[in-house]
Amino acid sequence: MNVPDSVESDDLRDELPADLNPEGFVGAYQFPDNSRRRIPGAIYLVLAVICLVLFVTVSDSSPLVNDGFGWAALALGAMGLLCITSGWRMHVDEKQALVEAQQAIGFPVGHASAQQVWHGLRSRPTWRVLCYSTEEPPQRRGLVLVDAVDGRVVEHLVEDNPEKWSAAPEPSRTGN
C-alpha cells in the first residue's frame, strides 16, 4: 500500500466505532430479544409473494422471468415461515435463569455464567448456565439449560468438579 509522504505511519490506525468500544460501556448488557427474527421473516414472505406473482403472470411472455422465480418464491416462503415461527419472545432474562439453575442443581452457587443458545429445529432460545459451588476451590459444578420463553429447566447435570485447582507456579526468571 502506498502511503503519501504527508501521512505518518503512526496516524493510520484501525479502531472500533464509538458504540462498540467497551471502554465507554456503562451498565448491564441487554441481550436482544429473539422476536426480532420476525422482521426478516416478513421481508422474505413479501419477496416470495413478488417472485410468485411475477412467475405466474409474466413467465410466458418475458425472457427475464423463468422457472427460477418459482423456485425462489418457494425457498423465500419456506425461510420466511421458519423465521416467523422461530421468533420466540423471551420472557426469562439471564438473572432469572441463574435463579432457576441454582434451584435445579441443589447447592449454593459461587461463580456462575449464563450464555444464550438455541435449542431444537425452530431455534427456541435457551440459557446455558454453568455454576460452581461456593467452596474455594469449588468442589461441585453444574450445567443447566433453562428455557428462555417459559423458564422451565430443560435439563441439568451436576457432578463433582474434576478440575485441578492449584496456584500456578511462578515462572522461572532467567536473565540474558
Architecture overview:
The chain is an alpha+beta fold and about 180 residues long. It folds into 2 domains: about 90 residues, no CATH class; about 70 residues, Nuclear Transport Factor 2, Chain: A, CATH 3.10.450. It is built from 3 helices and 4 strands. The protein has a 4-stranded antiparallel sheet, covered by helices on one side. The longest helix is centred in the N-terminal third of the chain and has 21 residues. The protein is elongated. The model has no long low-confidence stretch (mean pLDDT about 80).
Q: Secondary-structure blueprint of this entry?
A:
Elements (H helix, E strand, L loop, with lengths): L37 H21 L8 H19 L8 H12 L3 E11 L4 E10 L6 E8 L5 E8 L16
Antiparallel strand pairs: 1-2, 2-3, 3-4
Which features would summarize this protein structure in a list?
176 residues, alpha+beta, Nuclear Transport Factor 2, Chain: A, 2 domains, 3 helices, 30% helix
